[in-house]
Amino acid sequence: RARQIHFIQEGSRLYMFELSFAMSTVALLLYSGSYFFNNKRGYLAFQLCGNVFLSLSYLLIGAYFTMVSVLVGVVRGLVYYLYEKKDKKVPWYVITGLCASMIASYIIINGVILSNSSPWDILYLIASCMYTITFAIRNIRLMRYLVLIPHASAVSYNLLSAAPISSAISYGIELIVTLVAIVKFELQRRRGI
User: Fold this and answer.
1) In whole angstroms, how large is the CA radius of gyration of the chain?
2) How many CB atoms lie within 10 A of CB 84?
3) What is the pLDDT of residue 10?
4) Mean pLDDT score of the chain, rounded to an integer?
5) CA distances from 42 to 35, 36, 123, 156 (A)
6) Which residues, including other chains, have CB under 8 Å from residue 153's CB and lie 6 or more apart?
7) How many whole angstroms separate alpha carbon 66 and alpha carbon 63?
8) Cβ distance 131 to 73 under 8 Å?
9) Does 118 have pLDDT greater than 80?
């Protein structure tokens, strides 16, 4: 009887990892598509949708701090999209508030509730704050270059922490897609297209 329960629990956990992988794959496709927009609104809309799927993928595997950070990314995407739609720059107090909410969520979730903080979580926290600062830049060309830094940090976090390898692969592919988009737009710029 105990063995049956063990197999059921293992099957359920495997199902959650498979579902998480599917959600992160959808997020990857949305993120990848975002880098080929030549305007900030389309870029932010795809990033926002990608963050929703990515937060669900982290929820399914119990990575709660990372999930909350991505949910803050959903709020960030929505707020930044609204500012961009009004053709306004995101104020620094909004950027600071978003970063502060991620730091607070880290302290509350990992330090108080779960009591299982890891040094690698700090790397993801830094990457999340760097995304927040980078995405506020209105010049999409400059933003594409600067987003490479938090991409590399997110890949490192996912490789060094207990995250599923699919997460590291996803961020790695996003890093490569960003480089491809940079090359594409730079070639177009040089040709005067």
Assistant:
1) 18
2) 21
3) 61
4) 85
5) 9, 9, 28, 28
6) 123, 124, 126, 127, 130
7) 6
8) yes
9) no
Mean of pLDDT values over 146-155 = 91
- Find tokens 């897609």 and name the residue: 177
Token readout for 140 is 């999409």
Distance CA 62, CA 43 (A): 28
Q: Which amino acid is at 15?
A: Y
**CA quadruple 70, 74, 79, 83: dihedral, nearest 10:** 100
CA 181 to chain centre: 18
Report the distance separating Cα 77 and Cα 179, nearest Å. 21
Locate tokens 């975002």: which residue?
34
pLDDT of residue 170 exceeding 90, the answer is no
Q: Which two tokens stand for residue 73?
A: 């990314």
pTM, rounded to two decimals: 0.77
- Contacts for 70 with CB less than 8 Å, ≥ 6 apart: 51, 54, 55, 58
- The tens digit of pLDDT for each residue in 57-116 reads 888 888 787 888 888 888 988 999 899 889 999 999 999 999 999 899 888 887 788 777
> In terms of residues, how long is the chain?
193
